[in-house]
């Protein structure tokens, strides 16, 4: 066989053994010596490495620097496994060995498997910067560059020693993370020694470094920011200001010593952003200043961060005093008034920090990531640790074990989550070891996935096995809110078979209270009613509720949501389609929880038409139905109950109830904007009025024993006419009739009045659904005038007596129901009145302005805040609608585009005609939309209409949530509204009043 053939054979054999590049592997082995290719022990160790090619390349480079390493590896199997295990995982540590070839010797002999103590780590790193470890406050040597490089080299040598024990299984995850934390603390001590050399006044202050986050909990990663807080006190006789200045310089110097880049690289960032006031606050504070801040101003997330606080460097006595001082405040955080809002804000912040393109591969912040588990464990500690001191642990795994022992988490659940957490942390370490870079994203390259899988001992299909195992653990972790928060609540009230531990009723109440339920005892009763028993319904509810309790907790009113769910379930619980919908359609169940926990109005609609829950399962069901379709269905109902007008209208009101629910849901979930909502509600009211009118006409015709002697039409006015109805709007209308040829005027008028009165009666009948009150007060002469007029009577009145306000009111007039031809004649008759050729004169303008000023002064309810009244308040609806209507009265005679009953359409047309600056239109439209949304939200949330933003903070917060603001966004909501209306008022003063 030729040499070339032998090379090809060897290269192929190496490739089959696990090397990605067999030819290069053969060349590198040849470079190691002729015996290397045939050294089965060496080859076996290389092939067993996570990435054989990387291990061989790094070994070849190390051998160039120190050839003796090969002999030592042949002589000692442990050294061979440890060294090649590290080199096959970490290119960065291989690079370190190339620069510091003697460091491999620490992986040989008994010292290689012995864990160093924290004192040993501290002494080694302090000595590396040229300081005396025996000194109470060591000072680094005079050579600054040597000290910085020495710290980094010594740190990485210790990292190498730890990684070798880690990859060979000598040291488990808890020992790895605690040693990394001790090593970080030692590096901070060495950094302080460097800082003292450069701060002559260092002796003026006592400085303690408090470890936070993973470092404080002794669960640090290989590469991670080290979170710290600094606390200082002056030495005896030293001015506090001077001492704090010295301590600040020391802290800054220590941070630079660790994070600055040198020829040996950098260690990691020292992050002090968790200090009081964050980056905006002073870097160093006294103990008293810390305590004052936490007592007065700290938020819940800051106490959550303090769960991990531990003195790690500097004056450990002072650090201990700090931890003792804040400890009790930490464990009272769950009793804080804003606890729930802060918890929800923290959950949102975690999710917001995930890049969309990395969400499914982010093992820290992504779905099913480490933060899911850590957050839940910490929150359970805050909730239950007030009364149970055994839960007061810093690290995640010990805290999870304590929660399990205390019965707050089921044993199987705790075991599964601990396994998921351990696996994800190990993946995190493997990712970071490769380049010693801070990363939490699982790669999508096959080569890197292969290295991860082989590091876990997966050899048959490392990529597939690793991916499957990772996804399984992530799925377990993602269910943590169900597992850690909600399922134990069921265990507290329902007899579930096979559970090893249940929450006590008191603990379940504490958890519900912490999640935002105002009446935990009532919530527990609802849970018991829904889940008790052995029926199929109870079994499905036990599956659904753990998730839905979380969705209710995220809603503005969790108690109302849970109560509403129980009531709907009581009505539909035996319906197979209902249980199947909630079980199989996650979107339907989540929407239902949100709607029930947000809107009393929608809940009331659903309780009276529970079958409407079916429309929650598909987006297509949340699109308002066409007016013609609704009209056809309503007409069929009226015909079906032709002999009973009350039943006919009750059937139509049932149709209206269902469509109101559809529109309310679509609006709350953001599928309709406020103009769409107004249009849908107005068209629905048109259909309802038409159906009630048909029923009334049929009834009056039967009573009169013949057809009506007159044509009859309903003219929509106000918000109905403008297609701007809200959920609480009345139907502002006028009634017009026209006697048939040959009919007596008196007979026709009597019939028309009978129809109008019957229409109003039918729509005002007591019922469980929201009423549609017909208001005819905008008719000529108001309540003093006749309820119904003929077309000619209207024409005569308007010709002789009409005032400017009536022309203004007619801008909204349109045909709504009844005889369409008569409606068109009425609209044609009023055209010159509302769109006068040449516009209105200045006297009419002054009259309209006086009327608006009078209305603001007299019609604003007593005690109402004019800044918060959405209709008549400053910058509210009237400040937008009246300027738009004044422009129409002045110019619509010449500008056809202004001839619309809609406010925003009129404003847009005014811009197009050059009558209003686009910037003014934008300001007015924003205020109109905002005020309209608030009016709808008030009705949806409270179940009753209102024009003023509530003064009650809880109600205001619920309205803000219904409008899409976060749980802590009530003040932002109010500020946004005041800003929008302030700008709108300024435009109205200029456009309407000419100011």
Automatic annotation (TrEMBL):
Pfam families for the chain: GlnD_UR_UTase, GlnE
InterPro entries per UniProt: GlnE, GlnE_rpt_dom, NT_sf, PII_UdlTrfase/GS_AdlTrfase
Gene Ontology BP term (one): regulation of glutamine family amino acid metabolic process
Region ranges (Adenylyl transferase): 497-995
Top-level taxon in the UniProt lineage: Bacteria
A GO cellular-component term linked to this record: cytosol
Keywords: ATP-binding, Magnesium, Multifunctional enzyme, Nucleotide-binding, Nucleotidyltransferase, Transferase
SUPFAM superfamilies: Nucleotidyltransferase, Nucleotidyltransferase substrate binding subunit/domain
Enzyme class: transferase
Enzyme Commission designation: 2.7.7.89, 2.7.7.42
Gene3D superfamilies attached to this UniProt entry: Beta Polymerase, domain 2, Nucleotidyltransferases domain 2
Single GO molecular function: magnesium ion binding
Glutamate-ammonia ligase adenylyltransferase repeated domain span: 82-318, 590-828
Required co-factors: Mg(2+)
Ranges for region Adenylyl removase: 1-489
Residue span(s) of domain PII-uridylyltransferase/Glutamine-synthetase adenylyltransferase: 344-485, 870-992
Reactions catalysed: [glutamine synthetase]-O(4)-(5'-adenylyl)-L-tyrosine + phosphate = [glutamine synthetase]-L-tyrosine + ADP; [glutamine synthetase]-L-tyrosine + ATP = [glutamine synthetase]-O(4)-(5'-adenylyl)-L-tyrosine + diphosphate
Family listed: Belongs to the GlnE family.
Protein name: Bifunctional glutamine synthetase adenylyltransferase/adenylyl-removing enzyme
Protein source organism: Sphaerisporangium rufum
Gene from which this protein is expressed: glnE
